[in-house]
């Protein structure tokens, strides 16, 4: 048995086996001002086979993210110079396809909603367990590596969805979509008129094998965002069950 990174501020300590080590060398940028958490994140990422680069403030984080090529940016919100919200927003403008996972002690619903509106792909509150953090990182990286250039266009109500271009079109109107939104639409289109549970969404779209401890409000927030973007493509809420695309 091996301990990954030891017990550090902001993490729920747990013992990991060597079976959890990943065979990947994806570069990840860590933007975190607290040295103990920054060091702990780098230890954990290195242990799991990633190549972390760490910076301690938002301005340096944004510069590094724009100058380099990172599979994922782990972004704290409460930074000393500029907030993670502002960094995420600016990064999303310049690099709309950059994967961003926000880390913060601010777990209020309004902060979570604000994070998603700034363009975050996911949001984890401190303290968090190593297994939850890695599950979310792995899910994001599976999506970012699996969609690009590989899927055929498909119909979703009156919209034509292009997974390669991350775009929805209807006549002259076009919408930019995230990779996760594309995956959600593809699942709903496949399961047209059938109920899709939140658990199924977490497994199929978020790529999580163990979802018992994961907050399902993440799913609800993404559904709300999709409804706002594509108001005439009906995604119904089935109380206590999940969602259904009524085509």
What can be said about this structure in brief?
By secondary structure, this protein is α/β, with parallel strands linked by helices.
Furnish the topology, listing elements before pairings.
Blueprint: E1 2-3, E2 11-12, E3 15-16, E4 27-31, H1 35-47, E5 51-55, H2 58-67, E6 72-76, H3 84-94, E7 100-104, H4 109-117, E8 122-125, E9 128-129, H5 130-146, E10 154-156, E11 159-162, E12 167-170, E13 173-176, H6 179-190, E14 195-196, H7 198-204, H8 217-229, E15 235-238, E16 242-245
Helix pairs in contact: 2-3
Could you explain how this protein is built, in words?
This protein has 247 residues and is an alpha/beta fold. The chain folds into 2 domains: 145 residues, Response regulator (Rossmann fold); 92 residues, Winged helix-like DNA-binding domain superfamily/Winged helix DNA-binding domain (Arc Repressor Mutant, subunit A, Orthogonal Bundle). Helix content is 37%, strand content 23%. It is built from 8 helices and 16 strands. A hairpin with a 3-residue loop joins β15 and β16.
Count of structural domains? 2
Number of DSSP E strands: 16
| Approximate helicity band | 25-40%
Shape assignment: globular
Oligomer: single chain
Radius of gyration: 18 Å
- The SSE order reads EEEEHEHEHEHEEHEEEEHEHHEE
Nearest-integer average pLDDT: 80
- Widest β-sheet, arrangement of strands: 5-4-6-7-8
Based on the coordinates given, report the CATH architecture of the largest domain. Answer: 3-Layer(aba) Sandwich
- Measured distance between first and last alpha carbons: 50 Å
Query: For the record, what is the CATH homologous superfamily label of the largest domain?
Result: Response regulator
SSE class = alpha/beta
Task: Note the total helix count.
Answer: 8
Q: Sheet bearing the most strands, described?
A: 5 strands, parallel
Strand content: 15-25%
CATH C-level label of the largest domain: Alpha Beta
CATH topology of the largest domain: Rossmann fold
Poorly predicted ranges (pLDDT <50, ≥5 residues)?
1-9, 12-24, 146-150
